[in-house]
Design brief:
332 residues, alpha/beta, Four Helix Bundle (Hemerythrin (Met), subunit A), Rossmann fold, six-stranded mixed beta sheet, 48% helix, elongated, binds guanosine-5'-diphosphate, binds magnesium ion
């Protein structure tokens, strides 16, 4: 019987795929929007592998240079000073990795979904807006404050970008034990959100100041009540009841997600595993200082090369492979 991921694993073991290409294949199978598909195709097509190999080749050349300095320092045909141009090349390579790491984790966010949290005081109309955005009844709406307690999630496809909408328990002072737990979950979700929509109704303002740090947009709700104030900092005013402004909000979310994820140009890294490998390699290079013992520099280079090699699966423990391939379904 074929195990989950058996065929992908065999392709990997036979050198037909590297580890990142196999991950790209898994992502392609899981992709539910066009931007996720494009990113998966880039990974499956060897984009990260090629970059890792290019970095690794530079490291291997530097390693050869450093090791020549160790082994043959007393022979005439090896350049006398190993450090000629060496430190500059190490720095240049480190900068290239640093630039790749400074991508705001957009590959991971696209892979997992851009998370938009609806927050605000009870009765602001969060659950009503959730239903309007999702175009179906996912959350219970009532005039009783504290109706929503658990986090409720809906996945949307906004112009190819996966967006996870999260409805939350309204934040207020009062509340029973269950509602307090709901509010704790709201705060936790807000602090990890990619975008927070703070909803306030004309009659329900709430206190935005006790919200954890996150990118926040102020939205006015229940615009059909006709009680809108003019001195407001709200970006948008809408009504879940009449639907007025709901499409504008969808456009706003799509725009924010596009700015953050730049889906037209797939990210190099799309998993934490990639990021950790590149970061470790970069840190090893960063520890190399000019005129340090060349043996120490050579060891740091070896560590950097090893991190990249493990990212593409040239070296690495069996359990990492098990973790990656077990996520495929049987027969893939
Ligand atoms: N007039 C009006 N009432 C609304 C609107 N959205 C929600 N409500 C009402 O406000 C109350 C609270 O709504 P709900 O969505 O449960 O708010 P939540 O506590 O923030 O989730 C309910 O009675 C809704 O019918 C709206 O756009 N216009
Ligand atoms: Mg609610």
């Amino acid at each position: 019987m074929a195990e989950p991921g058996e065929f992908a694993r065999r392709a990997f073991l036979n050198g037909k795929l590297d580890l990142t290409e196999a991950e790209g294949l898994a992502d392609l199978i899981d992709a539910s929007t066009s931007a996720q598909r494009d990113q998966a195709l880039a990974l499956a097509g060897g984009r990260l592998r090629d970059q890792a190999q290019a970095w690794r080749n530079v490291i291997l050349a530097l390693q050869a240079q450093a090791e020549a300095g160790i082994d043959f320092s007393d022979e005439g045909d090896v350049p006398g000073n190993v450090w000629d141009g060496f430190a500059a090349e190490v720095r240049c390579l480190g900068d290239s990795m640093q630039a790749a790491l400074a991508d705001g984790r957009r590959g991971e966010i696209l892979r997992n979904g851009f998370t938009v949290v609806l927050a605000g005081p009870p009765n602001a109309g969060k659950s009503s807006l959730m239903n309007a955005l999702a175009r179906r009844d996912v959350a219970i709406v009532s005039s009783i404050p504290g109706t929503t307690r658990d986090l409720i999630e809906v996945a949307l496809d906004l112009e190819g970008i996966p967006v996870i909408l999260v409805d939350t328990a309204g934040l207020r002072e009062a509340g029973d034990e269950i509602e307090l737990e709901g509010m704790r979950r709201t705060r936790a979700r807000v602090s990890s959100a990619d975008l927070v929509l703070w909803l306030e109704a004309p009659d329900q303002k709430g206190d935005i100041s006790d919200l954890p740090d996150a990118p926040i947009v102020l939205i006015g709700t229940k615009s059909d009540l006709g009680l809108i104030e003019s001195d407001t900092e709200q970006t948008l005013c809408l009504s879940a009841r009449t639907g007025q402004g709901v499409d504008d909000l969808l456009a706003l979310i799509a725009e924010r997600a596009r700015l953050a994820l730049r889906p037209e140009e797939p990210a190099l890294m799309s998993r934490e595993r990639h990021r950790i490998s590149v970061r470790d390699a970069c840190e090893a290079l960063g520890r190399i200082e000019e005129h340090m013992p060349v043996e120490v520099a050579a060891e740091e280079l070896r560590l950097a090369a090893r991190s990249l090699a493990s990212m593409i699966g040239l070296v690495g423990p069996e359990d990492v492979l098990g973790e990656i391939f077990s996520r495929f379904c049987i027969g893939k």
